[in-house]
What we know:
Pfam family, one: DAD
Number of helices: 4
InterPro entries: DAD/Ost2
Main location: endoplasmic reticulum
Number of strands: 0
Protein name: Dolichyl-diphosphooligosaccharide--protein glycosyltransferase subunit DAD1
Subcellular location: Endoplasmic reticulum membrane
Order of helices and strands: HHHH
Structural class: mainly alpha
Strand content: under 5%
Distance between the termini: 57 Å
Amino acid sequence: MVKSTTKDAQDLFHSLRSTYVATPTNLKIIDLYVCFAVFTALIQVAYMALVGSFPFNSFLSGVLSCIGTAVLAVCLRIQVNKENKEFKDLAPERAFADFVLCNLVLHLVIINFLG
């Protein structure tokens, strides 16, 4: 039972790795950006857990900024992906402009929340 589970997990990772190799570079860059944003949010949560949450507005603003940016980047990835037929008529430049505009609005709200 354990051997079959291990083999299934190895087959799954091998399948994911071989599929991800064929992913275009621009999507890999967006994936890296999403991982960076989520990792930054996790560092902020760990820092808050260790040190404390005295300026709680600052903590919430930082974490929500990272998570919001990651969500917007995932939306950009979905729109830019050539295999996604739902957004085939949307130009990548338009998708990036939407991403930048939404990030601007997000960060204006975050700055306003800081006080």
